Amino acid sequence: MSRQIILNAFDMNCVTHIVAGTWRHPQSQAVRYKDIEYWTDLAKVLERGLFDGLFIADVLGIYDVYAQGPEAALRAGAQVPVNDPMLVVSAMAAVTEHLGFGVTAATSFEHPYSFARRMSTLDHLTKGRVGWNIVTGYLESAARNHGLDTITPHADRYDIADEYTEVLYKLWEGSWEDDAVGTDPTRTEYADPAKVHPIGHEGRHFRVPGIHLCEPSLQRTPVLYQAGASTRGRQFGAENAEVIFIGAPTKDILREAVADIRARAAAAGRDPYDVKIVNSHVIVTGATETAAQARYDEFRSYTDPQGALALWSGWLGTDLSRFELDAPVEVTDNEFLKSSVEMFGQGQWTLRDFIDAHAINVDGAMSVGGPSQVADELQEWVAETDVDGFNLTNVITPGTFVDIADHVIPELQRRGVYKTEYTEGTLRHKLFGRGPRLPESHRAADYRHVTQEVSR
């Protein structure tokens, strides 16, 4: 069988996720992001199209770097206002049977003890279809509004993330034994205290002495996503992530990143293909190439240049309003989103590029064409870079995903490179085919028995 491609839909609980301005398109439903029906309708579309999952981005700050203020982001609705991504998952799970959900949450702004409970709750309610997209946070505004003077240095953020995940692994994997709870009516106790263990964590950043508040869920640890393509981010991902999200704009950049991540995973004692790697990709399609090009031209007429620059200024950590339109954008290394600085801030793009060429395809690749043309391109990316699949950025919602479900996925299925039905089971089992739990080769497995030794 040909290699099966992974496709995630990429969205955010706001009116403008990536492509600024297109919320104004007459077919866009983005302004309904506040309505639960928007999310349940979207989930049904994605499950009809056999998407692997819905990957929900998030930020806890505002894009206020451009022109040194939040005005451009507010006018464009560029990731502000933004609602909590977790609160929409249960409703979507209730109207679907198979669709996975990757939810973004930063290790910099929430204590791991309370976060562990939130994710275990979602894993219970979704019957094991939830994943956590691990990010460290990059917006200065988020840091200030969480009581910090400035954003924590990049390397330190990943050091915190290392300990953060250690705490979570202890809670999720080791605090409750598999048979600690029983509902047999002959039992006199719901939970056996001898099989519930305090984790006794005393670290540099966190002190968590007690037990996990939740009994074991189907996956225990949710599927671990990670979006960080800097050198330090790749190392963290190779040690922890099961699905890594990259925003590489060319095959050469993506090929190097994929090879590097797989090598790092092997060095960490993991199978290099225990890490699924997905690249950001925009698809504009229709029944024919001509129809797709017309749709693209129409979308372009709705893009918002100031909103795009507000987003890019936040990702690059520099005020793009200071550059001339055709001047190379060269960004000094900083503590913001280092992967964007490395890939887009070295003078290879001008301000016009960010407004024009990158107004829609942003930080990844793009395909505009009919079903055969798009399928050809996706297969070429997989064959030439060893990537596992794609995070599909929407231009309008749900229209982008409807177009992909109606035109591209059937063509991929005809070629034998995309599933024709879902695998039963949890999200982890759907992705890897070996049950709901993390393998013994994963870092988290080291903590499965540590807490039992602590309590005894």
Report on the architecture of this protein:
One of its GO terms (molecular function) is monooxygenase activity. InterPro entries: Diverse_substr_monoxygenases, Luciferase-like_dom, Luciferase-like_sf, NTA_MOA. There is one protein chain. By secondary structure, the chain is of the alpha/beta class. It has one domain: TIM Barrel, CATH 3.20.20.30. It contains 17 helices and 13 strands. It has helices at residues 36-48, 71-76, 89-94, 112-125, 140-144, 154-174, 231-240, 251-267, 289-300, 305-316, 338-344, 351-355, 358-361, 371-385, 399-414, 427-432, 450-455, and strands at 6-12, 53-57, 100-106, 130-135, 201-202, 207-208, 223-226, 243-246, 276-285, 328-330, 346-350, 365-369, 389-393. The strands form three sheets. It has an eight-stranded parallel β-barrel, surrounded by six helices. Strand 1, helix 1 (36-48) and strand 2 form a beta-alpha-beta unit. The longest helix is centred in the middle third of the chain and has 21 residues, at 154-174. The protein is globular and about 70 Å long. The model has no long low-confidence stretch (mean pLDDT 92).
